[in-house]
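Why Mannose-6-phosphate isomerase? Reviewers of the renewal asked for a concrete example.
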Amino acid sequence: MKIRPVILCGGAGTRLWTNSKNHQAKQFIDFGNWTLLGKTLDRVKSSTFDAPIISTNLKYLKEVKKHLKKHKISKYKIVLEPAKRNTAPAILASALIKDIPNEQPLMFFAADHLIEKASIFNKAINKNKANLTNQNIFIFGIKPTSPSSEYGYFITKKVKGNINKVTKFIEKPREAKAKQVIKQKGYWNSGMFFLRKDSIINNFKKYQPTIYKNCVNAVSKAKLKNNTYYLNKASFEKATAKSFDYAILEKTKQINAIKLDIPWSDLGSWKEILKMYDKDKNKYYKKKNVYYRPWGKYVNLFEGKGFLIKELFVKPKGILSLQKHHHRSEHWLVTEGKPKITLNKDSFSKKQNDHIFIPLEAIHRIENKGNKPVKIIEAQVGSILKESDIVRFQDVYGRIK
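Here is what the prediction returned.
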């Protein structure tokens, strides 16, 4: 039996857009002729998987169908949530549809994760398929590349049959705690799950009977039209809003881990997005987008909807004007050198891999006091992303009009 992929595609991705009311959900953002949902759909085309099931809501239905068409996926089912109830009801409801046999292995993907080396990932799933039972759950750990406080962690121990049993979860820790967890061989908790349909049913019956009862009703009363299940609103709204982690993972003892050492990110912050653009900047570089300034130069790498990605090169002893913007905030990631940053009344030094957030209207400046160039990848986020939106207060190159 092939593995059935279920793609959870209901998230709003609000963390990236602090001030915007009509923000884009992260899975649909065009990062340069590709989206995270598109990459997820391409990943499940592998021979490992059966036709996908997509769990989403009415607001995103059109966008999901557009993606399915673009990625040439004609066999699929969509399960529409009529209300936001977090991941536990979403996971259960999509597993309960009649298309799925009871012992079917299900692989739950987030629609907005960037996973590289998919062949290693698929090999690990296939290897563990035989270990699935009607009770257990496999979760995916990613070997940490840094003591990040943006992800949760877990710790495992080896048990019979060479299986990694999860012994402890650690909620997003502070950096110092994350370092300790990594020393104990802790892995990032990626938020992906691998289990059989009967295991989902048994776990919900045991630990979340109210969610189970209401989801069964929501699915049995659902309307099926054009490969899309419209879940019954009255029943689904009665399901308690809980995350799958809180509803099931924190209660059951039968959790095992598949540990992977592959590049992975949920692109959940501008720092992560800037790291991705820095790694792939050669794909975006165009000579005509290079602009020279007295302090050095910058390159426009990619302009998306509501954001612009640049790389700044500040030459030794170069100093940008003291400035602010009316229509945009900025995120900076230092990739080389040690810039001195002015932010309102503070000034401080930063080093490689440091992230700096410049709020709307904040007065700021970058200065390179060293003898080596400073490189910064910048995301401008806002409604107007033009050079005209600069108010200068001081400038050593005499550019204040």
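The chain has a mean pLDDT of 95. This is the kind of structural detail the renewal will allow us to pursue systematically.
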